[in-house]
Design a protein that fits this description.
This protein is α+β, with helices and mostly antiparallel strands and 560 residues long. It folds into three domains: 186 residues, no CATH class; 152 residues, Oxidoreductase, molybdopterin-binding domain (Sulfite Oxidase, Chain A, domain 2), CATH 3.90.420; 107 residues, Immunoglobulin-like. A five-stranded mixed β-sheet has the order 2-1-10-5-6. Strands 3, 4, 7, 8 and 9 form a five-stranded antiparallel β-sheet that branches. Strands 11-12-16-15 form a four-stranded antiparallel β-sheet, with no helix packed on it. A hairpin with a 4-residue loop joins strand 13 and strand 14. Helix 1 runs parallel beside helix 8 and helix 2 packs across helix 4. The radius of gyration is 31 Å and the shape is globular. The structure holds the ligand Nc1nc2c(c(=O)[nH]1)N[C@H]1C(S)=C(S)[C@@H](COP(=O)(O)O)O[C@H]1N2 and molybdenum atom. Ligand MTE binds next to loops.
Length: 560
């Protein structure tokens, strides 16, 4: 520690450790400053979000499915923690590099700004080059800070060049690094601020000030973002959805079975599955929200506000939503009561005709505020089914996670080709002319929901007692309806399950089967038949490209 005096540069392990700390502070400052800038130019989309979003956009479908399966709805949290972990590691390394090559370490920080900027401008919702600003400004701040902090450690001569004995280290280093470590004007005379030597007090002060300033700008960014989100929250609180002009028929008495462990017939908003690419849930202010309808065959282009929508006749319908990423037996399906404007009515007002009536557009592309694009067949949307622009879900304005203020819902189509949340634009085009977000990622252009059934109870590897065991679950074939559900025990005959009453052909249907369970291991299998007479196929297919197929089985051990 003979060099650890005010006038000599800091060396060895201690220098590396303080370099790593400087790297960490620089990284922290970069992100905090970027958050503040992004709050100003582009709310709710800081560089970490941008990099995360870019990662999601580029994730191969197989990996995305894997992530959703293993982390469920936590997949995005895992991703963000992963990005922060990598950034932390890189910051530590760059800090240590900078103790030897000050300029290279700092340029390294700048390079990450470039990565962040490219990620931000490359996202589907990026509309202008200002999206690069947060990353660039943050990186400049971080790089500058690193350069400055490392300067406080004092410069060390390159080991390949022998130090001249007898002269002070600092003097030697200054001669070599020239302008890079020139003493600050006005600092002359004070040995502690000689920039060629280890400036302990300067470093501690600078590090503390940088940490405090970063925290301050990070918090300011948060606050700024929060106030923007508050308008959206306030606008949602202010929503009063008028009574529908066409109510949903009451759910038949026998549609909801009272069986322990079965999925409730109506899925509450809190329990409803959520699948989207948004790292931060968009907070859209309903009072300034607009939806533009334009494109091929639109003779009267329109832009509607939220108030315009609420003044139109509203329909209320129970519709079961399903995600194409749902595995056989998976959880990404739910049934809710939606209220909204019939999409076909609005399209007709705009002069749109379906292809069967000579319309030139066969694809309706919905675009959300976060840049998602979802393409549905115009024919399906206008064929008389209850495709809607939904504003309400289970008696409330849409929750933010489910698309507030307005989303699409189309009975019979998987969500990725129909259910655009946070919608703000509808363009009529053709399937030949345009591939939507998921189609660009190898999912099918058209994807009607496949007939499926699921055993909710008993649970896999459950241990029911011998005797009568209620096997029960749900089956769905939206817009065709469920006609029959059968259950098989081991390799036995198919047995008819008891079907709950049908609500509509757009909703799932509960079923149950009273099983006379005997001791030992058993496999229970279920299959459904839809109202076109088609029985659910045994053939297993993966979720990509157009939805999983196959029978759901559950293995249980019956105790005596
Ligand atoms: N803006 C936007 N809308 C979206 C998505 C998305 O990622 N972004 N995902 C779609 C998919 S894949 C499905 S299955 C449904 C899910 O709707 P939910 O989250 O309300 O259940 O939303 C659809 N709408
Ligand atoms: Mo989905």
């Amino acid at each position: 520690m003979d060099h650890d005096t005010p006038n000599s540069p800091l060396r060895g392990i201690k220098r590396l450790a303080l370099g790593a700390l400087s790297g960490l502070l620089a990284g922290y400052a970069a992100i905090a400053v970027a958050e503040l800038v992004s709050a100003a130019v582009r709310p709710e989309s800081g560089p970490v979000i941008a990099v995360g979003g870019a990662a999601i956009d580029r994730t191969p479908p197989g990996v995305k499915d894997w992530a959703v399966r293993h982390f469920g709805t936590n997949d995005k949290l895992v991703l963000q923690l992963g990005i922060l972990g990598v950034l932390t590691l890189l910051a530590l390394i760059l800090g240590m590099v900078a103790t030897r090559w000050r300029l290279i370490g700092s340029l390294g920080v700048l390079a990450f700004g470039v990565v962040g900027a490219l990620a931000a401008t490359g996202r589907p919702d990026s509309t202008s080059a200002t999206d690069a600003l947060p990353s660039v400004v943050g990186a400049v701040a971080g790089a500058g800070l690193l350069y400055w902090l490392i300067g406080r450690l004092g410069s060390v001569p390159h080991p390949a060049e022998p130090r001249v004995a007898g002269t002070g280290d600092g003097v030697e280093a200054e001669a070599r690094d020239g302008a890079e470590t020139a003493p600050t004007p006005g600092a002359g005379g004070s040995p502690v601020t000689d920039s060629t030597g280890w400036d302990r007090r300067g470093f501690i002060l600078a590090a503390t000030a940088a940490a405090a300033a970063s925290t301050g700008s990070g918090l300011a960014g948060r606050a700024l973002n929060g106030s923007q989100g508050q308008n959206a929250v306030a606008s949602r609180k202010g929503v009063v959805i008028p009574a529908p002009s066409s109510s949903a028929a009451p759910v038949p008495k026998g549609a909801a079975l009272r069986i322990d462990g079965i999925s409730p017939f109506m899925t509450s908003n809190g329990d409803f599955y959520r699948v989207d690419t948004a790292l931060v849930v968009p907070k859209v202010d309903a009072t300034s929200w607009k939806l533009r309808i334009h494109g091929k065959g639109v003779t009267r282009e329109r832009t509607v506000t939220f108030d315009d929508l609420l003044k139109m006749p509203l329909i209320e319908r129970n519709i079961t939503l399903t995600c194409v990423s749902n595995e056989v037996g998976g959880p990404y399906v739910g049934n809710a009561r939606w209220i909204g404007v019939r999409l076909a009515d609005l399209l007709e007002e705009c002069g749109v005709r379906p292809p069967s009536k000579g319309g030139p557009a066969d694809q309706l592309v919905a675009r959300s505020v976060d840049g998602m694009t979802i393409g549905s067949p115009v024919e399906d949307v206008m064929d008389g089914r209850d495709a809607m622009l939904a504003v309400g879900m289970n008696g409330q304005p849409l929750p933010f996670e489910h698309g507030f203020p307005v989303r699409m819902v189309v009975p019979g189509l998987y969500g990725y080709v129909s259910a655009c949340k946070w919608i703000e634009d509808i363009e009529l085009t053709t399937f030949d002319a345009y591939d939507s977000y998921w189609v660009k990622r190898d999912w099918a252009q058209r994807a009607p929901i496949k007939t499926e059934s699921r055993i909710d109870t008993p649970k896999p590897f459950g241990r029911p007692k011998a005797g009568t065991v209620m096997v029960a679950g749900v089956a769905w074939a939206q817009h065709r309806g469920i006609d029959k559900v059968e259950v098989r025990v081991d390799d036995g005959e198919w047995q008819q399950a008891r079907l709950a009453a049908q609500d509509t052909r757009d909703t799932w249907r509960q079923w149950s089967y009273a099983w006379d369970a005997t001791k030992g291991g058993h496999t229970l299998t279920v299959r459904a038949t839809d109202r076109t007479g088609e029985t659910q196929t045994e053939k297993r297919t993966p979720t990509i490209p157009d939805g999983a197929s196959g029978w759901h089985s559950v293995v249980v051990t019956v105790d005596a």
